[in-house]
Amino acid sequence: MTERKTRKTLVGNVVSNKMEKTITVSIERQLLHKRYKKYIKKRSKIWVHDEEEKCNVGDRVKVISTRPLSKLKRWRVIEIVKKAQ
Question: Distance between CA atoms of 49 and 76, rounded to whole angstroms?
Fold first, then answer.
């Protein structure tokens, strides 16, 4: 049998949960600017599959990459790291 590759995991904040079984997660990362040697923040939004619809706006979630589930969804929720207040 072939060995399965390790999948990517990311942690981000839920921005929207208005769709059915889908949430939008904002991923924030820091990059070092080449010229000015200063750290800058970059954000990207990803669409994540939430089967049980437990996530709410403001939650911090851990997601894992998966096969394409729809046109935009390529991620799945593993766990809710921190609930919103």
Answer: 5
Token couple for 31: 């990059």
Instruction: Determine contact, residues 40/34, Cβ cutoff 8 Å.
Output: no
Q: How far apart are CA 47 and CA 32, in angstroms?
A: 26
pLDDT in tens, 54-78: 999 999 999 999 999 999 999 999 9
Distance between terminal CA atoms of the chain?
Answer: 46
3-state SS, 23-84, equals: EEEEEEEEEECCCCCCEEEEEEEEEEECCCCCCCCCCEEEEEECCCCCCCCCEEEEEEEECC
Give me the amino acid identity at 31: L
- CA geometry: angle at 30 spanning 63 and 35, to 5°? 150
Full-model pTM: 0.88
